[in-house]
Amino acid sequence: MNCCLCNQKLQFIPSWRGIFLYEAPDVACAPCKNAFSKLTLPGCKYCGKEGEGKCQDCFYWEEHGYRELIESGKSLYRYNEAMKDWFHQYKFLKDVLLAQVFAKELREALANERAMIVPIPLNEEKLRERSFSQVDQLLLSANIPYKHLLEKCGDTLGTKTRQERMATQQLFRLNGEAVPKQLLLVDDLYTTGTTMRQAAKTLKEAGAESIRILSLIRA
Amino acid sequence: MQAIEAFLRGRIWVKQFLPFPEELVQAAIDKGDATVISGISAGGECARCLENSSDYVIPFHCATCGNTCRYCRTCIQMGRISSCTQLVLWRAPHILTKRPHAFSWHGKLTPQQENASTAISESIRKQEHHLLYAVCGAGKTEILFSPIHEALQKGLRICVAAPRTDVILELSPRFQQAFPDTVIHTLYGNSPEQTGYGELVLATTYQLYRFEEAFDLLFVDEADAFPYSLDPSLERTVKKAVKPSAPIIYISATPSKTLQKQIAVHSTIFRRYHGAPLPVPIYRSLWNYERHIRKGKLPKVLTEWIQDKLQKKQPFLLFFPSIELINQAAPLLHKIDPSIQTVHSEDPGRKGKVMQLRAGTLSGLATSTILERGITIPHLQVAVVGADHRVFDRAALIQIAGRVGRSAKDPTGEIVFFHNGITRQMDAARADILFYNREGRA
């Protein structure tokens, strides 16, 4: 088996943990994995972006009618060059296998989660075109149970400018499933936070009390 | 020939991305001229690149078709192919159409080139594979002109494949000039769309994925890594792109032993077209160069070498073993002369910088192995910094040495291996070059 990112032969490194517990084999080599940069410091309370207190984007949301929709949140990685390459190959070249690169990290972040895990959905048409939902696939690879509560309506944000994004009115509707009190929303990439804020708004209006968020990457 | 046939004949293309209206494609399918196949066969083989290892053909739940699909990771850079991807092939039989092709190359071959050229034509006639083993600067492209012209006249469809885009881009204008009324297609990653039926196709090896039983004759340039042990899919693809009985002509300055054994018919040229011997590498020790450079100090021997070239106003290339080391050395080189630039494989401005070096606006380039082949600059001087590093194997070192003294006006030049200990690969490269010079003189 070769590394799924650089195609070099994977070295098997034995560990004590591996002797006693089953560990899924790595799909990426250590140098490739080290090229990703983890967000470790306690950054922005809402999105995990590094820096003191609230980040600019989240500050904007809190001031503009989205106050305390989101209780707290974090992101796992910075959007550096290695991450951009991974993201491009995963989402746009549709290399589904790459979901496994972060399986262990997502599992660590979500394994003991009590709240219901709700992925951000794709719209139907986009899903058929892409052939897989990138958020669902990340959770599936990490073996984390999840449940869809939302449906995407209208266009995607991908091609919009920052202003257009932040002014978007409604992005989601409920899919008819019962909405529990405690939720954790999961998305792949947090750019301005529009997606998360919109999803949280829809769910809050439907009776959710505490909504936290987790993104794999903070741009 | 209709546009759709001209496009599809010999190709294997994703139906969704065909540049024709859907009705037209459907009509051709209904008529039986074209056929649709699944991107991944039931047995788990990619129809485009013939990958069949379960490490690279990966099952997943597909939302497009609602079933468990498989997709191929080997050729994913060309757009993903999965089980539910439809690929179109042209199936209607081809009627060979002979027509005269203009030939406007009027250069003169050396006797050695002439011999090789005749031998290749002979192999093509006999439909046998052939290996052209010719040193860097032997004038390989010119050798091919006459056999290609003969094959074109017979109505054969020909492909010249090379592993790198740079090489294809260099070959393209030379072929256009030699065959002015032949339809020549030049294909590489993101190349502009070509129209009509390509009689002569110049393509990177990767572009061959998109052909199937297309060519009556195939030239594999820079075939030294062939059979591609690191990427067996490329070897499969070369075989897939040609018709079953088509001869394949392998061209290399440093063919592997396996290739030399596999191909029965050889022609060799160990002499450059201008007749002067190949410059022989000089060894110079450069102890702990990596540590010195990392600490921000360029070793004195190297600095003096560079200053010497600057003073003589000779363009030079400095080969480094890694991009990291280039980046560390870059500010130090700038200090010596601001017109020393750096290039590497991920540098989009690579082509421009090489042209600037040729034009003299840059004094020198620090480069990774990316420039080891395909470039010709008069009066060029070359140094390999860290020739002992494992990226510089025998073939790479011979190719690098082959950059020097290519023009007839100035067939000499310096090739220095700066090293931290002499390796077998360095010795093997030097021994081969001395061997070529001995053989070439006879």
Task: Characterise this structure.
The complex is a heterodimer of chains A (219) and B (442). Chain A has nine helices and six strands; from the N terminus they run H-H-H-E-H-H-E-H-H-E-H-E-E-H-E. By secondary structure, chain A is an alpha/beta fold. Chain B is α/β, with parallel strands linked by helices. Chain B folds into three domains: 3-90, no CATH class; 111-269, P-loop containing nucleotide triphosphate hydrolases (Rossmann fold), CATH 3.40.50; 282-441, Rossmann fold (3-Layer(aba) Sandwich). Chain B is 33% helix and 19% strand. In chain B, strand 3 (57-61) and strand 4 form a beta hairpin. Chains A and B meet through helix 6 of A and strand 3 of B.
Number of helices of chain B: 13
Structural class of chain A: alpha/beta
What's the β-strand tally of chain A?
6
Structural class of chain B: alpha/beta
How would you sum up the major sheet of chain B? 7 strands, parallel
Radius of gyration of chain B: 24 Å
Shape of chain A: globular
Helix content of chain B: 25-40%
CATH architecture descriptor text of the largest domain in chain B: 3-Layer(aba) Sandwich
Superfamily (CATH H level) name of the largest domain in chain B: P-loop containing nucleotide triphosphate hydrolases
Strand tally of chain B is 18
Strand content of chain B: 15-25%
Q: How many domains, in number, for the residues of chain A?
A: 1
Number of continuous helical runs of chain A: 9
Main beta sheet strand tally, sense and closure of chain A: 4 strands, parallel
As for the number of domains of chain B, it is: 3
Order of strands in the sheet with most strands of chain B: 8-9-7-10-11-6-12
For the record, the CATH class of the largest domain in chain B is: Alpha Beta
CATH topology of the largest domain in chain B: Rossmann fold
- Using the alpha-carbon principal axes, give the shape of chain B: globular
Distance between the termini of chain A: 31 Å
